[in-house]
Amino acid sequence: MKITFTEASWSDYIWLQENDKRLLKRVN
Question: Taking a C-beta distance cutoff of 8 angstroms, is the pair 13, 27 a contact?
Fold first, then answer.
């Protein structure tokens, strides 16, 4: 399965990786 991100959601995802590990676990 391929997941595509819009540019805005991708930058949010990168931000989450750097700033909010707990929320990132819920997203993944």
Answer: yes
- Eight-class DSSP state of 5: -
Q: Which residue matches tokens 């805005």?
A: 8
Model pTM score:
0.40
Give the H or E element holding residue 7: helix 7-19
Q: In this structure, is the dihedral angle defined by the CA atoms of residues 4, 11, 9 and 24, taken in order, positive or negative? A: positive
Average pLDDT over residues 13-26: 75
Residues 6+ apart with CB under 8 A from 27: 13, 16
Please give the backbone phi and psi of residue 8, each rounded to the nearest 5 degrees, phi first. -65, -45
